[in-house]
Write a structure and sequence with these properties.
alpha+beta, Double Stranded RNA Binding Domain, four-stranded mixed β-sheet
Length: 83
């Protein structure tokens, strides 16, 4: 299974997060986690999520995201997009 490279987590435009994953075959897959992924974690309307909170959510959900990156990588996608 792919593994999240935690030190690559970074904020991007529009509330997205970008990071990289190491695949079992040694490749590195770039990933974009869209703002829509974080919407279910917003506790109230008009809540602004901090970069630290987004990072924590990604780390807490790494297993799900790693599986999704694996699936997209096997399909030949050069960049995994998590929504």
């Amino acid at each position: 299974m792919s593994k999240l490279l935690v030190d690559t987590l970074r904020a991007a435009d529009g509330g997205r997060v970008e990071c990289d994953f190491a695949t079992p075959d040694g490749a590195v897959v770039h990933s974009v986690i869209e703002k829509s992924f974080f919407d279910e974690f917003i506790p109230a309307p008009n809540f602004t999520m901090s970069v630290q909170r987004q990072s924590r959510i990604v780390q807490d959900n790494a297993h799900y995201i790693e599986n999704e990156v694996d699936r997209q990588y096997r399909q030949g996608n050069p960049v995994a997009v998590i929504r």
